Each structure stands twice: as C-alpha cells, then as structure tokens.
Amino acid sequence: MVDANQYINQHYPNGKDIKELDTSKKNLTKAITLDNFNSTTRLNASFNQISTFMIKRQLPLEIMDFSHNLLTNFSILPELNSTIQKINLSHNYLSVIGPISDQLTHLDVSNNNLTNLNLSDYVHLTSLDCSKNPNLTTLILSLNSYFDPKDLSNFDCRETNLGTINTTSFTIECYNGIRSVITTLDTNNPSKQSTDNKLYIGIIIGMDLNIDILVDLKIKGYYLIGCGETSG
C-alpha cells in the first residue's frame, strides 16, 4: 500500500499543468489533496483504499471517479468548486454526502451506507444512481430537475428502502426497479393517451422525516412521495 499524496507528488512533480490525472488501481491509501495541481479537469482515483479527499483552493475539476474506495463521507466547499459535472462515488462506505457542485449533472452513489440523500440544491442533475443503499429512506431532489424513469441509467433506486414512487403517469417499485406506466384514456378523444413518462422532480421520496422538517419543506413547495402515499 502507498500513501496517495506521496505517490502523486513523486510521479507528477509538475502537476500544475496536468489536465487528466489517473491514479486508479494503484493501491493508494489515506488522503488525496491535489495541493500542486491547478489545471486538472478529470480525476480517476477508483479502485484504491482512499479514505479522504480534500482540496484547499478552487480547481477546474469536471469529472471525478472515486468508486471502489473507503470513503465514509464526501463534500467540497461550494466556494472551492463549482465546475464538477459528473462524479462516481459508488462502492464506498458513505453515510453522509455534503455539498459537491451546483453544476452537477450525473451522480452515482450506489452501493453505500446512505440513509438520507438531500440533492435539493442540484438543479442541473439529470442522472442519479442511488441503488443498493438498503437503509436509504429519504431522497430530496430539486424542484427544477427531472429524470426519465424509462431508462435505468438515468434514475436507479433499486434495493433501497424508498418504497413505491407514485406519479400520475407511472409507478416505480424501488426495491426491484420495476416501472409500471399508467395509461390514461381521454374519453373525449380515445386515440389520445398519456405519453408523459417523465418524473418531474420537486419531491421528497420516503417517510423518515420529522414533522418540523415536513412543514418547512411543504412551505418551500416540495412534495412527499413514498410508501404508496402522496401529499403536497
């Protein structure tokens, strides 16, 4: 096993000019800080034993892969990074995820230990994999984001404890990922049927919230969907 920062400093002494940094499958441990990097837009640190990621200044990172590591929490201060668009945090030990980037479009947090996932600030999010978090009971998504439920690569909630997601056009059983499209027949025009199979997010999925939080979120315009019931 090799200390991650020691490995990076030894193999990339001129890191300030590196656009893409690949340290995957190097058996790296401890923390990655990228202290000597200024121009890196892509970071692949997957398949290591990294437990911490920290940056102390703003970097132009856009794509990050920390899958298959030992992370238990992850966050980036908003003032330090607003450019990350895609991040893979799957196959870690995450129980908490803090702020990442307001430009985030793709997030994979599958195979972790999450119980609550608040993504309400990520208005650009279009793809989410939160599957295989067996204790995940609450998912909060932005009012302005939407997913295509017909495509598991865009929204996967299988093997979680989120229950059933109900909308006017489809249902999703989060345990097994089965989607059932609800077809509404217009009696005035039998040939016209509902084809709107998008999940327009402005919702909270799950029931594990106390009453004060529910009242506050309801005032802000969110809706609660989960366990076969809907209220708003």
Describe the structure.
It comes from Gigaspora margarita. InterPro entries: Leu-rich_rpt, LRR_dom_sf. This is Plant intracellular ras-group-related lrr protein 9. With 232 residues, this protein is mainly beta. It is 7% helix and 30% strand. The protein has two helices and 22 strands. The protein has helices spanning 4-11, 211-219, and strands at residues 2-3, 20-22, 28-32, 42-44, 49-53, 63-65, 73-74, 86-88, 96-97, 106-108, 116-119, 127-129, 138-141, 146-147, 155-156, 164-166, 170-173, 178-181, 199-200, 203-205, 223-226, 229-231. The chain has a seven-stranded parallel sheet with strand order 2-4-6-8-10-12-15, with no helix packed on it. The longest helix has 9 residues, at 211-219. It is globular, with a radius of gyration of 20 Å. Residues 184-204 and 214-232 have low confidence and may be disordered.
Keywords:
disordered C terminus; globular; mainly beta; 22 strands; 2 helices; 7% helix; 232 residues; 30% strand; Leucine-rich repeat, LRR (right-handed beta-alpha superhelix)
Q: Strand order, biggest sheet? A: 2-4-6-8-10-12-15
The termini sit apart by 52 Å
CATH fold-level name of the largest domain: Leucine-rich repeat, LRR (right-handed beta-alpha superhelix)
> Spans of 5+ residues with little confidence (pLDDT < 50)?
184-204, 214-232
* Element-by-element helix/strand order: EHEEEEEEEEEEEEEEEEEEEHEE
CATH architecture of the largest domain: Alpha-Beta Horseshoe
Report the CATH superfamily of the largest domain: Ribonuclease Inhibitor
Shape: globular
Largest sheet: 7 strands, parallel
What proportion strand? 25-35%
How many domains comprise the coordinates?
2
| The top level CATH class name of the largest domain | Alpha Beta
Discrete helix count: 2
